[in-house]
Design a protein that fits this description.
Oligomer: single chain
Largest sheet: 5 strands, mixed
Shape: globular
Helix content: 10-25%
Number of helices: 3
Low-confidence stretches: 19-65
Distance between the termini: 120 Å
Strand content: 35-45%
Number of strands: 11
Radius of gyration: 38 Å
């Protein structure tokens, strides 16, 4: 009888004790703990994942295009190869005449002149004169832009490109781009010349 009573009392005490046990609840509001594989052991390890509130790419400003950093003028190697297989324009009588490339205005002390053969790469060459003085005796026009620095005088400045030849195909062809002292593009021109003809750009310095 006593033994039975003892077991009944012990059972009641256990029930009372278990009724007071609570399942713990987490109050952690910090960063997520992420399991990643260790490079050294191969077993998962716990690593704290840093949450970025804003992507750094949203804050990055696009870099302006600069011919001085990209002498090929945004052309890939495939583009250059493709240009070599294209054809020059057909020869016209008007290409024997001198061509005006218009006027541009700047307040800088100099401009950067970039030129290239924008059609068939066939060995076109030009001479360059600034205000009547030769600054380049022979410039080979390639697929990529070639820079020439031109110091300006106050007022009107004449930049002339004289075709020394027509290469092996069609006229002497070129694309011309002019950058200001601040690196801003202020002119984009083209010429098609027969041997001896010239293209002239006027730069006005205020």
């Amino acid at each position: 009888m006593r033994t039975s009573l003892f077991f009944i009392c012990f059972f009641c005490v256990c029930l009372a004790a278990s009724a007071q046990i609570e399942i713990p609840r987490t109050t952690n509001t910090g960063p997520i703990i992420k399991a990643e594989e260790s490079n050294s052991t191969g077993f998962p390890i716990l690593k704290r994942e840093e949450a970025e509130t804003e992507s750094r790419f949203l804050n990055d400003k696009p870099k302006p295009i600069d011919l001085r950093e990209n002498p090929n003028g945004l052309m890939t190697e495939a583009d250059v190869i493709k240009k070599k297989w294209s054809k020059d324009k057909e020869i016209r009588e008007e290409y024997r005449k001198d061509q005006s490339l218009g006027n541009v205005v700047t307040q800088g002390r100099f401009v950067e002149v970039y030129c290239r053969d924008h059609q068939y790469i066939d060995g076109d060459k030009v001479q360059i004169f600034v205000n009547g003085q030769m600054v380049a005796a022979s410039v080979n026009l390639h697929a990529g832009f070639q820079p020439i620095l031109v110091t300006l005088q106050d007022g009107f400045n004449s930049i002339q490109f004289v075709a020394l030849n027509q290469g092996s195909s069609g006229p002497n062809t070129a694309e011309l781009r002019v950058l200001s002292e601040k690196g801003e593009q202020i002119a984009v021109k083209e010429w098609n010349l027969l041997t001896g003809a010239k293209a002239e750009l006027i730069v006005v310095k205020n």
